[in-house]
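Data availability (excerpt). The following record was deposited with the supplementary files.
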Amino acid sequence: MELSTGSALRAIFFDAGNTLIRMNYAAIVAQLAVLGYPVPLDVVRQAEWRARVRLDDELLACPGASTESGSSRHAYLRFVLEEMG
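Predicted structure:
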């Protein structure tokens, strides 16, 4: 495949919403333990998964809302923490 500038296409990178890159749950668990909050890895992983679903529901209720907004980031973190108890 040639680009309009004549250079060859070397790679295409796409982000499909956490499909290619996953969170490092072990690193999160380790940091929480350092901060005095020991939480099992499975609890963190499941809390994060449930938080995504909750965030999707919240975004659907607000047409035009973006996952890139500060309020979405705060809601996501709040949901993760709530799900972890």
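Summary of structural features: Residues 56 and 67 are 9 Å apart (CA to CA).
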